[in-house]
Design a protein that fits this description.
Residues 6-191 form the Flavodoxin-like domain. This protein is α/β, with parallel strands linked by helices. Helix content is 45%, strand content 18%. The protein has helices at residues 16-30, 46-50, 53-61, 70-75, 92-98, 102-106, 128-142, 156-159, 178-204, and strands at 5-10, 34-39, 78-86, 89-90, 114-121, 145-146, 166-168.
Length: 205
């Protein structure tokens, strides 16, 4: 079976997206992928982070997680992105990282990779689906094959988001539960399986 190199790249302020990213990375590894888990660079000033206890605690907790680099995108066959929603769009920290990918895009180095994404919002109807579709807009430009979870597993009828896994944090007070973690794990496994099939097909074409 073709090796599937998977980059799980995320931004998380208080830990919800980080928990989902960890679940995705573990599921991808269990499916036989080689995985890099990477956070994007924080853009907020230190005083803003320090003013929020949960934000500051999470920054300390994840200080040893490596930061994402363009090399991680070029290396990977499968790109898994996670970000909280901000006004229905991906958080600026992840968007800023995506905006640095012009050189890879111009060189065609992101074409035919697979991509999938997940998110967390503070409230119900807080922009989960628009955040995921906004991320997809970038994948279209890169020439990626987008892998949604759809309703391809029974967990999706509990999780309820065919665009990508999502979570409602109740303003950061509720961490992802087992349904959300199982959903993002399924999404990662599905993406690995389809990436493997795509690589095999392209290799034999």
């Amino acid at each position: 079976m073709p090796e599937v190199k998977t980059a799980v790249i995320y931004y998380s302020a208080t830990g919800s997206v980080y928990a989902m990213a960890q679940a995705a990375a573990k599921a991808a590894e269990a499916a036989g992928a080689e995985v890099r888990l990477r956070k994007v660079r924080e853009l907020a000033p230190e005083e803003a982070i320090a003013s929020n206890e949960g934000w500051a605690a999470h920054a300390r907790q994840t200080q040893d997680v490596p930061e994402a680099a363009l090399d991680d995108l070029e290396w990977a066959d499968l790109l898994v992105f996670g970000a909280p929603t901000r006004f229905g769009m991906p958080a600026a920290q992840l968007k800023q990282f995506l905006d640095t990918t012009g050189p890879l895009w111009a060189a065609g180095k992101l074409v035919n990779k697979t991509a999938t994404s997940f998110t967390s919002a503070a409230t119900h109807h807080g922009g989960q689906e628009t955040t995921i579709t906004a991320l997809n807009n970038t994948f279209y430009h890169w020439g990626c094959v987008i892998v949604p979870p759809g309703y391809a597993d029974p967990i999706q009828f509990q999780a309820g988001n065919p665009y990508g896994s999502s979570h409602v944090s109740n303003n950061g007070q509720v961490p992802p539960g087992q349904v959300e973690l199982d959903a993002v794990s399924f999404q990662a496994r599905r993406a690995v399986e389809l990436t493997r099939a795509l690589k095999a097909g392209l290799a034999s074409a």
